[in-house]
Amino acid sequence: MRIGPIELSSALFVSPLAGYTNLPMRRIVRELGGLGWATTNLVNARSLIEQNRTALKLVASSPADRPLAIQLFGAVPEEMRDAAIICQELGA
């Protein structure tokens, strides 16, 4: 399966599930095989920009945790833009 420039090994996705879709869970599911894409828990854009410890833990990833989407929320367009840039730099 292909989404834009990203080639996925499978059509199976892991959707965000609050409290569960952290890095250890995503890695376990990927090791079991068949996962094409995973998404993090919901992350506050401002908290990510401010490098809040909880936000950074939610977006923690590794090279084996790809492809990855980070689910952001916020109300200020500039903060959403800046947080999206951070996410892109993190490999999302």
Secondary-structure blueprint of this entry?
Elements: E1 2-3, E2 6-7, E3 13-14, H1 23-32, E4 37-44, H2 45-49, H3 53-58, E5 68-73, H4 77-89
Parallel strand pairs: 3-4, 4-5
Antiparallel strand pairs: 1-2
Write down the CATH class. Answer: Alpha Beta
CATH architecture: Alpha-Beta Barrel
CATH topology tier name: TIM Barrel
Rg is 13 Å
Outline the structure in words:
- With 92 residues, the chain is an alpha/beta fold.
- It has a single domain, classed as Aldolase class I (TIM Barrel, Alpha-Beta Barrel), CATH 3.20.20.70.
- The protein contains four helices and five strands.
- The protein has helices at 23-32, 45-49, 53-58, 77-89, and strands at residues 2-3, 6-7, 13-14, 37-44, 68-73.
- It has a three-stranded parallel sheet. A two-stranded antiparallel ribbon has the order 1-2.
- It starts with a strand and ends with a helix.
Summarize the structure.
This protein has 92 residues and is α/β, with parallel strands linked by helices.
List keywords for this structure.
37% helix; two-stranded antiparallel sheet; 92 residues; TIM Barrel; 3-stranded parallel sheet; alpha/beta
